[in-house]
Design brief:
The complex is a heterotrimer of chains A (about 130), B (about 130) and C (about 290). Helix content of chain A is about 35%, strand content about 30%. Chain A contains four helices and five strands, in the order βααββααββ. In chain A, a hairpin with a 5-residue loop joins strand 4 and strand 5. Chain B is of the alpha/beta class and about 130 residues long. Chain B has one domain: STAS domain (Transcription Regulator spoIIAA, 2-Layer Sandwich). The longest helix of chain B has 18 residues. Chain C has about 290 residues and is α/β, with parallel strands linked by helices. Chain C has eleven helices and five strands. In chain C, strand 1 and strand 2 form a beta hairpin. The longest helix of chain C has about 45 residues. Classes of the chains: A alpha+beta (about 130), B alpha/beta (about 130), C alpha/beta (about 290). Chains in contact: A-B, B-C. Chains B and C meet through helix 3 of B and helix 8 and helix 9 of C.
């Protein structure tokens, strides 16, 4: 999948989550997404960035511009070296909260994006990759 | 850390959120509001979010918490000025903001605070 | 079919570009389908010259018309195709422009490769493959151009088809018109919500009399619109539900929750007025 542009953003603090929103908004605008689509992407980015900071012990987000001929998209990748998720299925179920509050973040983000994939193992961190096509 | 200003208007409190809040700031707002409600016998809170172009699940939950806590302290909350793109996204996200009254703008919000809430048969499920 | 040294085709075109060009122009001017009303001889000459030059350069690098070596030639054809679409040429006429190069090219190949039947056959095949591919490319470009025009017209139509009618202070009617496919419904939904903000109406009546069919997706979008409006602080009533649509909704198992629905706009208006704290009374109680 041709990546024509890419940028990394460290995610370690509350303020980084805000930065993640703002950077994602900028990229979404540049890619020509409609206002509603921009809002959906930025909201998903906010959820996933927060998860990375709060549950992943910090990590990073990578934004990528995808150019597949007729269709273009924005891919967001979130990586952390945190404790990992023991039961992904359960974490994805709505409103699920271990008290560490993954809550709506994962399942909600998946609903807002076109593609969503997550790989995580206890002790091996988490990697989430999600794309919104134009 | 800066705080979100809370304006006192008679027995109402008006909060206009104009910055992209980080989580700590949102929690600080929650604390400030509760403190002020108790301190001054407030009966209504207007939370204007017309400047917010994103409301994610954390902010959504915070808004819900503010409304619930305010009610316990004897004050009704009305959230005003939600943008269409934000509303559509919240519906898609599955966040219902149950128990939070909303109005198109601050003026209408104030009118609402003057009237008791009409009985509802229950929220529509978002399918 | 790629050969390590330049193909015979490339050699011939390289050597005899001018004679081929002259022959090509002569054949076109004598052709019955020459559209002098749309393109002048000068412009046509320029188009042929430009394309043939690009052909020569590309052929010298590769005989695979899909390779990057042929980008310039494709670029020139894209420009010609777009310009001709604007001038009123049919896509076939534009493709024929490309195919018409075959005749002068084959004539030249026959002359120069007369003694070598195998080489002649190979070169003729290469030329055919390249020109067929490029001819088809011009029709693709034409298609894309038409699609862009249609898309733009659809957007304009969409703006026209979400009117808002102020029925009373705080009450607006939003009649939906036309078929709602999934893509259009989303745009209409955003437009509806924006109308609610613009009009400042706390009650919006979404009238679907003008919508012929409602399937599950459309019903879900409508319900999402109502939910979003509620989040914003406005109440929605759906009116104009015909018996067939009511039947469809029940059969599809769509759950309307507590969304108010009415068969007629009049009934919806009565509810809307009530919601804004108003009631209608006769002027003269005795009547």
């Amino acid at each position: 999948m041709p990546v024509t542009r890419s940028q990394d953003l460290p995610l370690r603090s509350d303020e980084d989550v805000v930065r993640a929103r703002q950077l994602t908004r900028q990229w979404a605008i540049e890619l020509g997404f409609s206002l509603v689509d921009q809002t959906k992407i930025v909201t998903a980015a906010s959820e996933l960035a927060r998860n990375t900071v709060l549950h992943g012990g910090g990590g990073q987000m990578t934004l990528e511009h995808l150019d597949e001929g007729p269709r273009r998209g924005l891919r967001l990748v979130f990586v952390d070296q945190g404790p990992g998720i023991a039961d992904i299925e359960q974490a994805m179920r709505d409103g699920f909260s271990t008290g560490s509050g993954l809550g709506l973040g994962l399942s909600g983000s998946r609903r807002l994006m076109s593609e969503f994939s997550i790989s995580s193992r206890p002790g091996q961190g988490t990697r989430i990759s999600t794309v919104r096509w134009r | 850390m800066e705080r979100i200003p809370v304006l006192r208007m008679g027995s109402f409190l008006l909060v206009t959120i104009q910055v992209d809040m980080h989580d700590r700031l949102a929690l600080a707002l929650q604390d400030d509001l509760m403190g002020q409600i108790r301190a001054a016998g407030t009966t209504g809170v207007l939370l204007d979010i017309s400047a917010l172009d994103v409301v994610d699940s954390f902010i959504g939950r915070t808004i819900g918490n503010i409304a619930a806590m305010a009610r316990i302290l004897g004050a009704e909350t009305v959230v005003t000025g939600m943008r269409p793109a934000v509303a559509i996204t919240l519906v898609e996200l599955g966040l219902s903001l149950e128990g939070v009254r909303t109005a198109l703008d601050v003026a209408r919000g104030m009118e609402m605070l003057g009237r008791p809430a009409p009985p509802r048969s229950g929220r529509a499920r978002h399918s | 079919m790629a050969s390590p040294q330049p193909s015979r085709l490339a050699e011939v075109v390289g050597r005899s570009e001018q004679p081929i060009l002259q022959e090509w122009l002569r054949l076109q001017s004598e052709s019955l389908s020459r559209r002098r009303d749309l393109v002048s001889d000068t412009d046509l000459g320029e188009q042929c010259r430009g394309f043939l030059a690009a052909f020569r350069k590309a052929a010298a690098q590769s005989i695979d018309a899909r390779s990057g070596a042929w980008d310039e030639a494709r670029g020139i054809l894209a420009d010609i195709s777009t310009a001709r679409a604007g001038q009123g040429f049919t896509p076939s006429e534009t493709a024929s422009f490309v195919f018409s190069l075959k005749q002068p090219l084959f004539l030249r190949l026959r002359q120069e490769l007369a003694g070598d039947a195998a080489a002649l056959a190979d070169a003729a095949w290469e030329a055919t493959a390249i020109l067929d591919g490029l001819g088809l490319y011009t029709t693709e470009v034409y298609q894309k151009g038409r699609e862009a025009v249609i898309a733009r017209q659809q957007e304009e139509l969409l703006e026209l088809s979400t009117p808002v009618v102020q029925l009373w202070k705080n009450v607006v009617a939003l009649p939906l018109i036309g078929t709602l496919d999934s893509a259009r419904t989303q745009v209409v939904m955003e437009s509806l919500l924006q109308q609610i903000v613009n009009s400042g109406a706390a009650v919006a009546i979404i009238d679907i009399t003008g919508v012929p069919t409602v399937d599950t997706l459309v019903a879900q979008h409508l319900l999402k619109t109502v939910a979003a409006a509620r989040l914003m602080g406005a109440e929605c009533i759906i009116s104009g539900i015909r018996p067939q649509i009511a039947q469809t909704i029940v059969h599809l198992g769509v759950n309307l929750g507590d969304v108010i629905t009415k068969a007629s706009l009049a009934d919806a208006l009565a509810v809307a007025l009530e919601r804004t704290g108003l009631t209608v009374v006769p002027i003269d109680p005795a009547r």
